[in-house]
Task: structure prediction
Amino acid sequence: MGFKSDIEIAQEAKPQDIREIAKKLGLGEDDIELYGKYKAKVDYNLLKRDNGGRKSKLILTTAINPTPAGEGKTTTTIGVADGLAKLGENVLVALREPSLGPVFGVKGGAAGGGYAQVVPMEDINLHFTGDFHAIGAANNLLAAMLDNHIHQGNVLGIDSRTITWRRCVDMNDRQLRNIVDGLGARADGVVREDGFDITVASEVMAAFCLASDISDLKIRLGRIIVGYNFQGEPVTAEQLKANGAMAALLKDALKPNLVQTLEGTPAFVHGGPFANIAHGCNSVIATRMAMHFADYVVTEGGFGADLGAEKFLDIKCRMANLKPDAVIIVATVRALKYNGGVAKDQLNNENLEALEAGLPNLLKHVENITQVFKLPAVVAINEFPTDTKAEVELVRTKCQELGVNVALSQVWEKGGEGGIEVAKEIIRLTSEPNEFKFCYEDDVTIAEKINAIATKIYGADGVDFTPQAKKELDRLESLGFGKMPICMAKTQYSLTDDQTKLGRPTGFRITVRQLTVSAGAGFIVALTGQIMKMPGLPKVPAAEKIDVDENGVIAGLF
Result:
């Protein structure tokens, strides 16, 4: 049997009618809105329906810092959920929607892989149900109303040099990072510097994913700060009278999307903020709805545990009053050897010395989850055929020294059957109470919160603020935003703010170069390193390999 790509496996699958998947959740046809045969939206008002007092177990899947060797976090999330289903558990997956930027850029599709995927894979990776388009439209409506307000007389006295609200597009387009618009005649607007962010970095996306319902979303959108007036006071979307129309654009998008895994396990795929520049979690509404209908909910945070898991725990769980029951930390032997200095083309060879050198990256993430956040964890080794018994045993031994078990994940090859070992450990871990705590408390200063993340989670010696960041920090504190949690914008490739430093670096400091408030989302963004809110395409974009034939069959999406 020859090698099959992810898309070939997905296209060969025979998915169930989405109405049958809904039945597994106790939902009838009147409870869902069909988007064809295999996708549906579910009204979040069903959260008001009695579920018999179900006490759902919430499992977070995270990983080591990502490498070119691959880790397989989404694949593991899906496969473990299928494993729990095979063990007879009532389980639901809650994932983010993929952004078109990475789909056409470097990463390609983001619906899992091998025999652990959510389907319809092509739809999920491309336009899906139109949620991201709605978010982009709401973002750009606010931008249009802002510039129109200035053009029509600027009653609010907005200083165009202080405008912070940017337009967005869900594409990696570096050409749009910095632009000048309003050129032309007087009727064409006011000339000013502007720019685009990728849609998944928009504050509308963050507010959308943290909102509890449409009313809460409208309030959050109204709080968005678009810039400052000539007196230095913030100007909001509510003052521009934009938040009602923005919420109207998002009314249907706010309903979670129901799909299924290849094995028919129900899955919510909803929302998708980046984790290196936003908070990196699917919507609160989808997570709550999953916990309303299932006994086990397996979800994920973006990138490594220093970003996605930290933000899931410190931002999402804090705002939504969620308490996780266990954490899966995904790693591969190959990725750990890469962290230990092995070149990508040599990763198939046994190398215990390099593995031992790269293991501290995994161990740091394990320590963070179990010692900082006080949560039980299992390390899932996403198995490759080239892994040797000695390599796996070395990982197992080092993790057990920290009191954490290792379970092999073979979900890419075997689907849910390959996730049973991890699933059994999850059932064991979630049967006991835990002492979950945040990395920092609400009532400390912005600087103290950032320092706590940098020292406790990254292992830094401390934090340095540029003069601009210090000025912004003082301003945000004076405006009353000091109680908000922190969303760190940092490279995903390293525990530091320098993407070239792999493993578990020591003796470093984190430099915060800019601080901004996402008042609608409800957090402060601290930008470090060279992180930016509009990625670019690589030299050879994934888009070059994507095609569609005369029958409408898509190829090249992995």
